[in-house]
Amino acid sequence: MTNLKQKTNEKTSFKEGLITYFKGVKSEWGKVTWPEKNQIVAETGIVVFVVSAFTIAVYLMDILFKWILGLIK
Questions:
Q1: Containing domain of residue 40, as a range?
Q2: How far is CA 61 from the centre of its chain?
């Protein structure tokens, strides 16, 4: 009988803990400062540019190394 009560209390405390967690998430959600649309657009553009630049750099290095290794017979 005691074992059954412990399991019931564990489930209840888990449920209460989960409810407390989501109440905390809800209260913190209101404190978040979201960036402005122009900031998001600008930073996305920067990320796309940097990724493109690195992609092109790696591609050019690949071509260069293939050419150098092609000279070795």
A1: 34-73
A2: 30
Average pLDDT over residues 21-41: 92
> How many residues comprise the chain?
73
Number of domains present in the structure of the chain = 2
Whole-model pTM: value is 0.56
Residues 38, 71: one domain? yes
* Locus of tokens 């404190």: 31
pLDDT at 62 over 90: yes
List Cα–Cα distances, 12 to 8, 9, 16, in angstroms.
Answer: 6, 5, 6
Q: What is the mean pLDDT of the chain?
A: 88
